[in-house]
Amino acid sequence: MLEIGWFSAKLFFKGKLIRDPQYFWQQTAIGASIGLLLLIVPLFLHFPLWLTVILSSVTTGTIMPFLLQDFRMK
Questions:
Q1: What residue ranges are annotated as transmembrane (predicted)?
Q2: Of 18, 37, 38, 49, whose CA is between 20 and 30 Å from 56?
Q3: Average pLDDT, the chain
Q4: For residue 26, what are the domain limits?
C-alpha cells in the first residue's frame, strides 16, 4: 500500500497523474477560497473562534467532493 502511495506521489510531482491540472487547481482554489471566507468573515463579526473553525471545516469538506466530481486522472 505504501508503494502505491509512493508511486502516485512521484507521478503527481512529475505532472503525469492529473489529466487536466488547470481544472484541478481551479476547483481546489475555489474550495479553499470559500473555506477561507467562512473562516475570516465570521471572525470580523465577533463569532467565537471554535464556531468559525467548525463551520468552515465542515463546509469546505462538504463542497470539495462536489467541486472535484469531474476530476480525472491519467
A1: 23-41, 47-68
A2: 18
A3: 89
A4: 19-68
